[in-house]
Write a structure and sequence with these properties.
Layout (H helix, E strand, L loop, with lengths): L1 H12 L4 H31 L2 H22 L8 E2 L13 E2 L9 H4 L7 H14 L13 H7 L8 H12 L22 H7 L14 H25 L6 H11 L1 H7 L7 H28 L6 H10 L23 H13 L8 H4 L4 E3 L9 E7 L2 E10 L2 E4 L8 E4 L5 E4 L3
Antiparallel strand pairs: 1-2, 3-8, 4-5, 4-8, 5-6, 6-7
Helix pairs in contact: 1-2, 2-3, 6-7, 6-9, 7-12, 9-10, 10-11, 10-12, 13-14
Length: 428
């Protein structure tokens, strides 16, 4: 693990010839492949111990792994972390940024009104408490959900899933000091231009400041702006001034300005900006709207169902980088999760103590297999089959979707299930 981390850090931080970089990456994969076998061997040995000794042994192994990573870390260059992609679309956003340490306060998500379901407040609170322990990319949807819910009730035309889809496209749910500034000067998670923010920015969470970089103020400003625009476009349609789907045109106006919609009598067209930015922007939001409907429904579910709780635990970390060997029952480590680290954490958190083995191969031996057609949210999905068993594990969301930590260079995301995956119910 230490060798792979060191080589990886050097590759990320050095300007080396392509041939040298390719050789280094081959060494990383070779070390990683060997380490996976060692990991399986350790798990096998632990299973041979008396039952009362297994959990202390697992904790000792986790502690040793984290100690090794901490020992290597001071000698590595700062990693370059890809911009968190849209978890509802499965496509990476352009560009990259280096994420500094960010500490979220629990109060940031506690300002939601009491009508917001406890599951949402709990999700945001757990993210806040975990992040306080160390650096973490800003990319979690959880802290936004109470405000999407509230802003989605301002008017009939703008719903919480629409807002969630828009924010995923605008900024990948990033907020605070690391929120990127667009070339045109738009800022914050809602990407507001100064003049628009001066009109719509309000102190929505009662913290005494109007913060374009914050969650609450930005989301509520977006909700009010979109609702005003939606109403204006409806009026123009009634007057015969514009034509087209009202929501499509409202989203286009958020990107290109309502004046452009009025000028073209509908969807802006012709220029490169309109054809290559505004139209794909609208299409991407509308295409992911249904997926975010499912995500928000799961996060808002207070049924107490253990499968739903497993999903909720995993979805809190959308946008967190994949880290080989990362994660345990205690949460992310070294800044992220690998596939089985995410499932280990989510199941443990949802059950208040059920511990899975640490690898996808050994997790396959827990619980009972169920037909994929009978899989329920929270069941584990296994794929990438080889001679030693499954090489990947994910968590089923429903409707052919899963949440997983895919691979190096990627992040925790929602994606369609792989071909030939098998389902297993590890808890019921």
């Amino acid at each position: 693990m230490g060798v792979a981390a060191a080589i990886g850090g050097i590759v990320q931080g050095a300007d080396m010839p392509d041939a040298a970089e390719e050789f280094a990456m081959q060494q990383i994969h070779a070390v990683a492949d060997q380490a996976a076998a060692v990991d399986v061997t350790i798990d096998d040995y632990i299973e041979l111990l008396p039952e009362h000794s297994r959990e202390p042994a697992r904790r000792a192994v986790d502690t040793a792994a984290e100690t090794a990573q901490s020992a290597v870390a001071p000698f590595l260059p700062s990693p370059v972390i890809a911009v968190p992609p849209d978890p509802g679309i499965g496509e990476s956003l352009p560009g990259a940024f280096t994420e500094p340490e960010v500490v979220w306060s629990a109060e940031e998500s506690a300002v939601a009104e009491s009508t917001v379901p406890e599951s949402i407040r709990r999700a945001a609170g757990v993210v806040a408490s975990n992040v306080a322990a160390g650096p973490m990319p800003i990319g979690s949807i959880a802290v936004f959900v109470p405000w999407f819910t509230k802003a989605g009730g301002i008017c009939e035309g703008i719903t919480a899933p629409v807002l969630a889809a828009l924010y995923s496209v605008e900024n990948g749910f990033r907020h605070g000091a690391t929120s990127p500034v667009s070339p045109a000067g738009a800022r914050g998670p809602g990407q507001f231009m100064p003049a628009t923010w001066a009109r719509y920015g309000k102190d929505a969470d009662g913290d005494g400041k109007v913060d374009v970089l914050g969650v609450a103020d930005s989301v509520m400003a977006s909700g009010n702006l979109l609702c005003d625009t939606y109403s204006q476009i409806d009026q123009w349609k009634a007057e015969g001034v514009v034509s087209g789907d009202t929501l499509d045109l409202t989203l286009a106006a958020y990107n290109a300005g309502v004046g452009a919609v009025r000028e073209f009598g509908g969807m802006p067209r012709g220029s490169d900006d309109y054809e290559n930015q505004t139209r794909p922007y609208v299409a991407k939001i509308r295409a992911s709207e249904e997926r975010f409907t499912s995500i928000l429904r799961l996060l808002q579910n207070d049924s107490g169902d253990v499968g739903v709780r497993i999903v909720q635990a995993a979805v809190r970390y959308l946008g967190l980088p994949y880290v080989w060997g990362g994660g345990s029952v205690k949460g992310p480590s070294s800044g992220g999760f690998d596939c089985s680290g995410l499932t280990s954490y989510a199941v443990y958190d949802a059950t208040a103590g059920f511990i899975l083995p640490r690898t996808s191969e050994t997790q396959w031996n827990v619980g009972v297999e169920v037909p994929l057609s009978d899989a329920r949210p929270g069941d584990l999905l296994f794929g990438n089959w080889g001679s030693g068993g499954p090489g990947h594990v994910a968590i089923y969301l429903g409707n052919g979707q899963m949440v997983h930590a895919p691979t190096t260079g990627d992040v925790v995301r929602i994606a369609p299930i792989f071909e030939n995956m098998k389902a297993r119910r590890v808890v019921s």
